[in-house]
Amino acid sequence: MKVTKNMLNKELQSSYWALKISSGLLMNRVGVKLLNSNSARSKGKNIGGLQCEEKIITGSDGKQPIRIRIFKPLHYEGQLPGMLYIHGGGLMLGTPEDYMPVIKNFIEASPCIVIAPDYRKALDAPYPAAFNDCYDTLLWIDNNARELGIIPNKLIVAGHSAGGGIAAAVTQKAADTKDVTIAFQLPIYPMLDDRQVTESASNNNAPSWNSRSNNMGWAAYLRTLKEEGTEIPVYAAAARANDLSKLPPTISFVGDVEPFRDETITYIEKLKKAGIPVRFKLFKGCYHAFEILFPKLEISKEAWAFVLDAYSNYIDKYIYKK
Question: For residue 242, is pLDDT > 80?
Answer without folding.
Answer: yes
